[in-house]
Amino acid sequence: MANIQQVAMQAGVSVATVSRVLNKQKSVAANTRIKVEEAIKQLNYEPSLLGRSLRTSESRILLVLIPKISNPFYLDIIQGIETSALDHGYNILLCETDSKPERENIYFDLVKKKMADGIISMDPTVNIDTLIKMAENHAIIQCSEYSNDSGIPYVTIDNEQAAYRAVKHLIMIGHQKIALVNTDEKFLYANQRKKGYISALNEYNIPIRDEYILYTRELGFENGQQAIRNILRLENQPTAVFAVSDMLAIGALKELSSNGVHVPNDMAVVGFDKIDFSNMTNPTLTTVAQPMREMGEIAATKLIAKIKGEKVESVILNHELVIRESTSG
Amino acid sequence: MANIQQVAMQAGVSVATVSRVLNKQKSVAANTRIKVEEAIKQLNYEPSLLGRSLRTSESRILLVLIPKISNPFYLDIIQGIETSALDHGYNILLCETDSKPERENIYFDLVKKKMADGIISMDPTVNIDTLIKMAENHAIIQCSEYSNDSGIPYVTIDNEQAAYRAVKHLIMIGHQKIALVNTDEKFLYANQRKKGYISALNEYNIPIRDEYILYTRELGFENGQQAIRNILRLENQPTAVFAVSDMLAIGALKELSSNGVHVPNDMAVVGFDKIDFSNMTNPTLTTVAQPMREMGEIAATKLIAKIKGEKVESVILNHELVIRESTSG
DNA sequence: CAATCAGATGTAATCGATTTCAGAGAGAAA
DNA sequence: TTTCTCTCTGAAATCGATTACATCTGATTG
Ranges for the HTH lacI-type domain (chains A, B) (predicted)? Predict the structure, then answer.
């Protein structure tokens, strides 16, 4: 509980000298440095970050906004962010917005009020106008989800290309009747993944059927189950399903198995995200892997650069199709 | 970017008056208050938390320590903590320790250096000596995992009783040969759950067989698979498995199904924790539900009370056995 | 009318660090 | 000896808020 004054007194020097020792400045005589270090040890002194932050006007805390902490999609990204942040001497404040503006605002306030230096937003439902306004005065990076014309730098993958590849894979293994389990197209990724789906079908002259394109309200397990129930009611049933998220696909797997539909023999399934759990299902899930850890690391690095006043550009990373049991008998 | 001085100047009052308005003190004349509020609006002023925290020596930030963010067990607890914290005007800093002391120390430092007001530790591998030493000067609560003689208040369930009930359930539906998939007994919960397992068997005069008690190194899916592989190699195979964690149990389910062992007909399985995924498996998993959200809320409330200098006591909450498909044909 | 009091506001100290600027002292050069 | 440099150190301002205490005004009371 000692402060810098007491350390200075104990060491018989001024606070300025103590501060110099703390900040490893070289213009301190060796024996003075030793005296100060001993005083620090004796008093069990820890410099207050509040005092320092107030003076230097940086808190070295980064905010990470996600809609739901329970969504496993974010796990690796967060790990990437955290690793990179710690390397740069920053800490992260993980914030669950629950897709509610009032909770977003709590966290935006933390930045406005100087308690945090910048934001990595991964919330697709974020109030984009607020975000753009914030970005005028504060460092912000969007990760995974982004908006094209906001001027806010982002780190993401080419969703359209990734979806195209996933659907093309289904076509190559012989499927023609392919359903898309999508979510609300107000989300850019949903829109882009649908485009990829359509362009793959177009390329092979497979007609687009409206009844094969389903929309779910959320990305949960139950939504995937519900979508399959709807699909199984169709007269002309598809032989493959491309779901825009692993959780949807896993819900689909479960519902198919409950209905005695064999995967992949009766119905092939492809997911998106390669969450950990996608390897624990029976059968294991074919899915699109995003370089999540890398995305997180890059997002953090860029944010820190932005905080330091550098100009940063958006990045589009590569993805990878991981073929597993749900598409290979 | 305005500060309180500029607001005071703009409103034609002193900083003290502005501060009074900010803190909603009543001894401000109505029209003065209006002048100040207008100045605040005009300058787009946001009070700096750093200045405030430095002066009041409280940051209103709580640290939550967990070993792995990817462990779904913690999700609801965190939600509970966060809800309760926000209600009290606190924010939480979610910290993944990765069970590494050097990462723990980074976060402990944050408290020592006044950037955070207290800690909720959920890390069973936490360096307990460091924690006890920290607890002398700082507010700390243990949640879920705890140590008996540390003097640090905790919020948890009666693990022994819960395990006892789970195993008793298996006995009641006719099982006599029950395996325990446990983890390292250095963890208090592992120790306690084993006690519950033993006391249930004892109560029904079922002999304890060493080969039915397995230990895994971690609580992951693969560890559960591995344990089942070992069990299937036994000459005299058990007919039921009690795993001390859902992830272990889910790994077990998968491995059993891969080996053509039907659950629950050939082998019943019980897990522990009632993580979300436990309802998404095929068959769904019988498990012990901890009141996780409540645990989190109580932990946060107690921590805040502790920060305010009140004396707080430990709490043991109720659990519940959730019977699902993996134990009911 | 003087004394007392309450309400509204301002002055200035304070929290704990960093940092600018100036000064002391030692040694080198003239 | 004087002057100049260079190294090391300290005094004091500063970041942006809160708050104890002082002050002023006007109303109330005896």
Answer: 2-56
pLDDT of residue A103: 84
Which residues of chain A, if any, have pLDDT below 50? none
Tell me whether residues A280 and B112 touch, CB distance under 8 A. no
Q: Which residues contact B326 (CB under 8 A, 6 or more apart)?
A: B249, B253, B263, B264, B268, B269, B270, B271, B281, B283, B284, B285, B286
Query: Quick check: B316 pLDDT over 80?
Result: yes
Residue with smallest Cα–C1' gap to D6: A27
Instruction: Count CB atoms within 10 A of the CB of residue B47.
Output: 20
**Nearest protein residue to D13's C1' (by CA)?**
A55
Any chain A CB within 8 A of the CB of B137? Answer: yes
Give the model's pLDDT for residue B329. Answer: 67
Residues A145 and A104: their CA atoms lie apart, in Å, by 16
Report the pLDDT value the prediction gives residue B225, as an integer from 0 to 100.
97
Length of chain A: 329
- pLDDT band at B215; cut points 50, 70, 90: very high
Q: Which domains does chain A show, CATH number per domain?
A: 4-47 (1.10.260.40), 58-157+292-318 (3.40.50.2300), 159-290+322-328 (3.40.50.2300)
CB atoms B49 and A113 under 8 Å: yes
Say how many CA atoms lie within 13 Å of A32 toward its Cβ: 19
